[in-house]
Amino acid sequence: MLQYQIIPVTHYQQNCTLLWCDQTREAAVVDPGGDVARILAEVERLQLKLTQILLTHGHLDHVGGTAALVQLRQLPVIGPHQDDMFWIGMLSQQAQMMGFAPVANFTPDRFLHEGDKVMVGQAELEVFHCPGHTPGHVVFFCREAGLAQVGDVLFQGSVGRSDFPRGNHQQLVDSIRTKLFPLGDAVKFIPGHGPMSSFGQERRTNPFVADKHYG
Ligand SMILES: [Zn+2]
Ligand SMILES: [Zn+2]
């Protein structure tokens, strides 16, 4: 069964997450935005075998530690969707905008698409392409564990910003309501920032995507 540990990183308190299979102890790090030493210390403490880097989207607070991790551990970089390459290609501008130290560039080894599957040990993650916050944003969903890693698509009580280049609020809302909510009210999700929630709770109370706003 899939297990998880959230590690908030960078001054944006981005929810970098370790996902691992408790049978094999093979692990993926999702969105290593920075603070690579802290991430690796947690891998050590949990006695995990880190095998891959998964990325939800190309924003620096989610990918800033990727090049450093690749250099240290030679891990494959999987995701996001190729439509986020324009963000990944602008890492140095993003660092300037967000007040980050400059970071090295990287190229994903595998882009992800709607319907793809990613294995973490024996646990399967399904991939959903959920544009709107960024055009190439993907969400990882483990059906067996009832757990989704949604990046900056959806938050407890809010949704991702869509005022960036190639952002689109309607597309974001459609992604959430037509792809994520049908996975079930009981599904718990880890957002890119802030506390966890469930799709059911957001359907009831989220001012941007609750059912009552969409007859
Ligand atoms: Zn973002
Ligand atoms: Zn973010």
Automatic annotation (TrEMBL):
GO terms for molecular function: hydrolase activity; metal ion binding. Residues 13-193 form the Metallo-beta-lactamase domain. Signal peptide: none annotated. Gene3D superfamilies: Ribonuclease Z/Hydroxyacylglutathione hydrolase-like (3.60.15.10). Its cofactor is Zn(2+). InterPro entries: MBL_Glyoxalase_II, Metallo-B-lactamas, RibonucZ/Hydroxyglut_hydro. Keywords: Hydrolase, Metal-binding, Zinc. It comes from the Bacteria. The keyword Metal-binding applies. CDD domains: YcbL-like_MBL-fold (cd07737). Pfam families: Lactamase_B (PF00753). The keyword Zinc applies. This is Metallo-beta-lactamase superfamily protein. It comes from Cellvibrio japonicus (strain Ueda107).
